[in-house]
Design brief:
Layout lengths: L1 E6 L17 E2 L5 E2 H4 L18 E6 L6 H17 L7 H23 L4 H28 L4 H24 L6
Antiparallel strand pairs: 1-4, 2-3
Length: 180
């Protein structure tokens, strides 16, 4: 298990004491929000809502599924496959490349997560995942050009992968082994 130290901006105290808000702001060098990085699953907030906190609290990321970027990459993979089914057989090579790079994103994040005790290793794997995401964005742009009837859908999925790349890059920039 990995301990992550985050600074939180709590709601004003009520009769039960301080309560961690649903949108916990993480204040570090870059000032990011947890919904950009994915510290905890929403279902896990209940464990921490009645905890009295000073300015800092330790939260645990127990599994790669606790990373929002990982869950988002899996969600987008399903959308990608639905799009690829609509491509003509003449675009087989593009389909193969898209599947490879699309599946590579969550796989690379998971592999990096397994090596998270080394900050440099985990960051290296995050960079590889960003590369796979950017490669996939290029393939989706190609689909938009070569298959006009799928232009809008390909552009929409490409935008979602751009967002994923930005989130992976943000995680890369703030990751410190053992804490943020």
């Amino acid at each position: 298990m990995e301990n992550l130290t985050v600074s939180v901006k709590p709601k004003p105290a009520d009769s039960a004491g301080m309560v961690i808000p649903r949108e916990v702001a993480i204040f570090g060098k870059l000032g990011i929000k947890s919904d950009l990085v994915g510290i905890l699953r929403k279902s896990e907030w209940s464990e921490f809502q009645k905890v009295r906190i000073p300015d800092t609290m330790v939260l645990m990321i127990k599994d790669v599924m606790d990373l929002e970027v990982y869950r988002e990459s899996l969600r987008l993979l399903k959308k990608l496959y639905l799009l690829l089914r609509k491509l003509p057989k003449s675009e087989y090579d593009t389909v193969v490349q898209c599947k490879r790079s699309g599946k590579g994103i969550p796989a690379t994040i998971a592999e990096g997560w397994a090596k998270r005790s080394s900050e440099l290793e985990f960051k290296r794997f995050l960079k590889m995942a960003i590369g796979s995401s950017d490669e996939l964005i290029t393939h989706l742009r190609t689909i938009a050009i070569t298959t006009p009837k799928l232009t809008n859908e390909a552009k929409e999925i490409a935008e979602e992968y751009k967002t994923l790349s930005k989130r992976l890059n943000k995680l890369h920039s703030i990751w410190k082994s053992g804490y943020f």
